[in-house]
Amino acid sequence: MMIALLLIDIQNDFLPGGALAVNKGDRVIPVANRLMPGYPLVVATQDWHPAAHRSFASQHPAKQVGDVIELEGLTQVLWPDHCIQGTDGAQFAPGLNQGGIDHVVRKGTDSSIDSYSGFFDNARRKSTGLQDYLRKEGVKEVHIVGLATDYCVKFTALDAVGLGFTTKVIQEGVRGVELNDGDCQAAIDEMTRSGIEIISEENDDHRI
Ligand code: VGL
Ligand code: ZN
Predict the structure, then answer these.
(1) What was the pLDDT predicted at 208?
(2) DSSP 68-91
(3) Active-site hit among 13, 26, 107, 154
(4) Is there a contact between 147 and 153 (Cβ–Cβ < 8 Å)?
(5) Which atom belonging to ligand 1 lies closest to the Cα atom of 9?
(6) Is 107 a catalytic residue?
(7) How many whole angstroms separate alpha carbon 99 and alpha carbon 133?
(8) Angle at which helices 183-193 and 154-162 pack, to 10 degrees?
(9) What is the per-residue pLDDT across 180-190, written as a single tens digit (0 to 9) for each?
(10) Do residues 147 and 174 make contact, with C-beta atoms less than 8 angstroms apart?
């Protein structure tokens, strides 16, 4: 049975010192590196925004980071400029074993809409190609690590389970933004309610 490991947005801007730093975000790197050799297929997503992406507070003069606006009819949190295409902040973490990645999916490339999920933009208007790739490879189950628990990990996992993939999130391998207290726990609860299993690295027993 084909299981893929999904590495979500393990990029410099989400690490300590980065533009949209996730607290202890760097802790997911050794977990990802340990897990990778155990999977037949490893897919990494990369947040990959144009410089004038509409999710950036800098594009809305009267607004600040953390403010919430309406964008394309959707609720949108405004972020610091991050993961701009081609910049150092958008590169994968240097400590990540990039030689172990089989396929990269870029998202957030349309300046008018955000894309938290690795599968679709937030309005589900366009797909990134991740689903087609996984189907082509015969993947039935995905295991997820990366950043951030309460945004891109959550929305990728919810889409994966909704698309019919058995979906597990490896708890030591994820860290969240926690814009508001409790956001990460709420994300874990929502994923669990949706049929996603939260497992620990040591119980990840599928290994080939
Ligand atoms: C992310 C906020 C904005 C993430 C990406 O990777 O979780 N969060 N862009
Ligand atoms: Zn982003």
Answers:
(1) 47
(2) EEEETTEEEE-B-S--BTTSGGGS
(3) 107
(4) yes
(5) 6
(6) yes
(7) 19
(8) 10
(9) 999 999 999 99
(10) yes
Q: Which two tokens stand for residue 113?
A: 């809409």
Ranges of residues in the chain with a pLDDT under 50 are: 208
- CB atoms closer than 10 angstroms to residue 69: 15
203 CA distance to ligand 2 centroid (A)? 31
Identify which ligand lies nearest to the alpha carbon of 108. 2
Q: ipTM for the complex? A: 0.98
Tell me how long the chain is.
Answer: 208
User: Rounded to whole angstroms, how far apart are CA atoms 195 and 38?
Assistant: 24
pLDDT at 200: 96
pLDDT of residue 78: 98
- What's the pLDDT at 161? 98
Query: What is the pLDDT at residue 207?
Result: 54
Ligand 1-lining residues (CB < 6 angstroms): 9, 14, 47, 79, 147-148, 151-152
Give residues with Cβ within 8 angstroms of 128, minimum separation 6: 45, 105, 106, 107, 115, 118, 119, 120
Q: So what's the pLDDT on residue 206?
A: 63
